[in-house]
Amino acid sequence: MDSTGQTPALAIAGLHKTFGDHLAVRHAELTVAKGSFYGLVGPNGAGKTTMLSMAVGLLRPDEGTSLVFGIDLWQRPDEAKQLIGVLPDGLAMPEQLTGRELLTYLGRVRGMDHDTVTARAEELLAVMELDGDSERTLIIDYSTGMRKKIGLACALLHGPKLLVLDEPFEAIDPVSAAKLKVILRGFVAGGGSVVLSSHVMALVEQLCDTVAIMGRGTILAEGPVDGVRMGRTLEEAFVELVGAEVSAAEGLSWLAS
Ligand SMILES: Nc1ncnc2c1ncn2[C@@H]1O[C@H](COP(=O)(O)OP(=O)(O)OP(=O)(O)O)[C@@H](O)[C@H]1O
């Protein structure tokens, strides 16, 4: 339970992963309260995807646990996975299906009833603008943004209570991004919980109530966005915490000549 006496939507404890002798995630701890909109930021290679993949059951941790509404995901994966919708990084998909076929197939795999799947697929394809002219397009011919959108539709189809989204806004056009923000805000307003990773600090500041900053496999700061910012912009806090060098590049002088 968290400080409010509620079971958190997601509680990660001691998640640890090495690839060979490379440490990707070091005993990560974080707690996502129910109803929270949680942002995870960090530089390239910080370990965000590795940590989220372990948290949702896509990558086996060396150590640690991930509890989804109190259910140990690696002990009781079927129960835990009913509760979460996941948008993984670099999602592999059945390329020879249309978006609607993919959603219908996924609904069957998840054991959902046919009418519910048909109605939800219709709505999701419309919201993601993957209907109409795109209706007959095979996934192999989708653009990067379209792939992201059908991935999101797949994550939402079974009506999860927690969404874990790895860079959901990457490659999405501004109109679709605005729609997606409305969907995610509505999801949280209705009691859902969201964890998303992003490189766009302004987006995290705009959407999220809680943020974690990760660097070199470690959670460097976690808490309410205002608490982590401490009077600075999130970008300033980020740069300070990860110790990035932001002075003008001294090299590459040949570029200007
Ligand atoms: N399958 C793998 N095998 C070996 N090393 C890996 C593997 N997956 C990730 N890594 C390494 O683990 C570290 C963390 O990578 P990860 O993809 O989790 O970072 P990230 O924070 O999501 O980065 P980005 O913001 O660039 O997506 C990196 O050094 C990466 O090279």
UniProtKB/TrEMBL annotation:
Do you know which InterPro entries this protein is assigned to? AAA+_ATPase (IPR003593), ABC_transporter-like_ATP-bd (IPR003439), ABC_Transporter_VariousFunc (IPR051782), P-loop_NTPase (IPR027417)
What keywords sit in the KW lines?
ATP-binding, Nucleotide-binding, Transport
Q: What GO molecular function terms would the record report? A: ATP binding; ATP hydrolysis activity
Please report a single Pfam family linked to this protein: ABC_tran
The ABC transporter domain, residue ranges = 10-241
The entry's protein name is: ABC-2 type transport system ATP-binding protein
- Species: Labedaea rhizosphaerae
